């Protein structure tokens, strides 16, 4: 259930080749291609199979074998289709794919050369023509063409979401988070994972990992991202069969930046938060964590959302006796279950001394304001020493497990080179 970095290399082409739900505090419960590439996993390319039967031209006796899928005349092809390639005696040097109007479709080769991936979802009920040229070391060529027609719009779809947005800057612990509704079953995750691509600049290793329900997948490396990293993500599942007769609703993509390093470390033993910016301790903040009946979770969390002002209302959840409704300032969400860092003027006397919250990290108004002005979504906060352990999937918990454990979540085989990283 983890997904590996995959790579796409540009080929010389003849013709351009979900909002965060607000719940109340205290419920405990150089460029790296991660684009497509079946090479690392050994998995076959996604898409229909069958050799193309189009015309072949050879310059002399060329010892090149080349076949292309979808086959000539293939109908009802998913709009997520790739051009499957099998070649020996040479390398694919040119790929051209055009729609029914003769307009070129951009795309890239998988690094292992097993397929050419269109740069966007194909149109429904459209006939496409492809021409692929392979070239031998001596410069001789072989060309294969094919023509196929895509399927109509599917009746049942899998909803998707990407918690990453263009031109935004995130903290160093920001995992790439993809959401699926309904969740993807284990048998279908490998095909989906093969279509989830991440490029990092500068180059850094990374892997996909699924939650047990299949509703989310995270992408991260063995360490937090380097400050200044660019993440370019494409979740190319539009029209992709996702199991149970469903197809992905659409492609999603984003290019975002990773900002400076900013880490918050909370120790229940001292009731203090140590704030480290770019490797230097810049502030120590007294805190009050969850009381015995509603303990804060220990684990590595990330800031998921920031609200300068909001309302916590637990009356429906906890009942009129235990529930409460209160205005909150400078709230930063850490878990889906409702744990936040936030301003708590009512507990200032307890901060640094004892735990009185309903599970949140209480800080003074001044410290809450300062933290709010400094943090980014994706900044890490580590809480240790409480009686409750953070549940995997309760928030963006990709960093709350070891690298070895994280790799177990991949739906594709993980290369040995990645397994050995620390």
Automatic annotation (TrEMBL):
InterPro entries in alphabetical order: Big_10 (IPR041280), LD-transpeptidase (IPR050979), LD_TPept_cat_dom (IPR005490), Transpep_catalytic_dom (IPR038063)
Gene3D superfamilies for this protein: 2.60.40.3710, 2.60.40.3780, L,D-transpeptidase catalytic domain-like (2.40.440.10)
Pathway membership, UniProt: Glycan biosynthesis; Cell wall biogenesis; peptidoglycan biosynthesis
Start and end residues of each stretch annotated as Disordered: 36-58
Domain L,D-TPase catalytic: residue ranges: 262-384
KW Transferase (keyword) present: yes
PANTHER family per UniProt: L,D-TRANSPEPTIDASE, L,D-TRANSPEPTIDASE YCIB-RELATED
Biased composition (Low complexity): 36-56
Active site as annotated: 342, 360
Signal peptide start and end residues: 1-23
GO cellular component: extracellular region
Annotated protein name in UniProt: L,D-TPase catalytic domain-containing protein
One GO term of the biological process aspect: regulation of cell shape
